[in-house]
Amino acid sequence: MRNAEELVRHLKREGIRDPRVLEAFRRVPREEFVPEELRHLAYADTALPIGHGQTISQPYTIATMLEMLKLVPGMKVLEIGTGSGYTAALIHEITRSPVYSVELIPHLAEKARETLEKLGYRNVKIFVGDGSGGLPAYAPYDRIVYHAALPEIPSPIVGQLREGGILVAPVGSLHHQDLVACQKRGDQLVEIERRPGFVFVPVVGRYGFRLYR
Ligand code: SAH
Description:
By secondary structure, the protein is α/β, with parallel strands linked by helices. The protein has five helices and nine strands. The chain has a single domain (4-211), classed as Rossmann fold, CATH 3.40.50.
């Protein structure tokens, strides 16, 4: 795939249907979010390294998550794992409302800030730190999405989701996860959708994987 339009055609062939999601992929220039030496691969449907052992996620995987989130304009969204900032830009294209994004690695957060500012995404607010337990200061959110794998859904996140709100996260082992969508009903999270067969980098931090024991 050489450009966003070809990537969108590919995503449609792969079964992505939500017109808002497809339009967001058409609008956000992925080449701005990948390292310069990998720009020729920017519209390939693969994850790419962005430094610090992290990756910009595979477009098909992101599209699946965004579909599961059922985003509409006006929603306030929290994402954990800013990485390159690409997913934050995609979310903002759909919601046109503030996106709160937490990244553990300061250098990646800084780079993402620069890229988003250059492209004019002023409504994406990036926070540096362990976001595994969410970002209570700006709660509640209409939607919450984790871009890195969790052993289980962290309990403190439930209180940060609005009633009827949806959370999407990759949940499983270090090497294999299901994408799980849960809806908040009362003070519980109820699973509404599950798609198996994904591999994400792990969430590290309080509610993530203990990697170096
Ligand atoms: N959406 C990003 C995906 C980045 S990969 C993109 O497409 O570019 C996942 C990111 O989660 C990595 O940048 C990693 O550093 C970050 N991460 C891991 N554990 C975290 C934590 N506890 N809090 C915040 N970010 C975390």
